[in-house]
Amino acid sequence: MDIRTATDADLDDVLAVEREAFGEEDEAELVRALLDDPSAMPILSLLAFQGKRAVGHILFTRVRLQAHPQLSLAILAPLAVVPDVQNQGIGGKLIAHGLNLLTASGVDLVFVLGHPGYYPRHGFAPAGKLGLQAPYPIPEKDADAWMVQALRPGVIGSVSGTVLCADALDKPEYWRE
Ligand SMILES: CC(C)(COP(=O)(O)OP(=O)(O)OC[C@H]1O[C@@H](n2cnc3c(N)ncnc32)[C@H](O)[C@@H]1OP(=O)(O)O)[C@@H](O)C(=O)NCCC(=O)NCCS
Question: What burial class does residue 169 get, using C-beta atoms within 10 Å of its C-beta: 0-12 exposed, 13-18 middle, 19+ buried?
Fold first, then answer.
């Protein structure tokens, strides 16, 4: 399996992976909107290939903490692996590869709203109890789905506030886990 940065020429592959993984159009539409959204930049878009076939995609986009403009923050959304190759470690490798690249580019924190049984295996922990709130309130029963990971030591605990996301992600329907 190879992982590489997705370029404009890969857009069809990116959208096809999203559609196949989620079995609907919504996530592909979100990815298309984020790739076109200046407020989401910088982005990191990675594709995983088995041979010539694109089988996985991960997207990180920029978020901010209002009172801490000096911080470099990202959010992981979405992550997609096509059904016939799930549970082979591809999702985990996409996360790890993305986090390595983000660390090298100086990102401080990475957020995700996702399965609380999955992302903690890859270093994420519930963010709300650390003082870092999602752009829209997450229902109490799903509080653990809003997670964060520090790529630079010492940031968590020294800052707090509500995360501001890109315009394309700034819709209440994206924040119901
Ligand atoms: C979630 C997803 C990205 C995981 O990718 P993957 O390549 O299959 O995952 P990995 O091979 O790295 O990890 C597999 C492990 O994660 C677990 N896992 C997968 N999805 C999970 C979930 N939703 N909740 C908890 N655990 C999950 C598997 O049971 C497996 O556990 P095991 O190692 O104990 O057998 C993939 O299943 C997918 O694209 N699903 C549909 C889209 C989706 O839900 N995306 C995530 C949005 S937050």
Answer: buried
Q: What is the DSSP letter of 51?
A: T
What is the rounded distance in angstroms from the CA atom of residue 70 to the CA atom of residue 35? 24
Ligand 1 pocket by C-beta < 6 Å: which residues? Answer: 21-22, 78-81, 86-92, 114-115, 117-118
Per-residue pLDDT tens over the stretch 108-149: 999 999 999 999 999 999 999 999 999 999 999 999 999 999
Range of the domain at 136: 2-175
Which of 50, 75, 87 gets mutated to test ligand 1 (max ligand atoms within 8 A of its CB)?
87
**What CATH number did the domain enclosing 44 receive?**
3.40.630.30
Q: How far is the CA of 20 from the centre of ligand 1 (A)?
A: 14
The pLDDT tens digits for 66-85 are 889 999 999 999 999 999 99
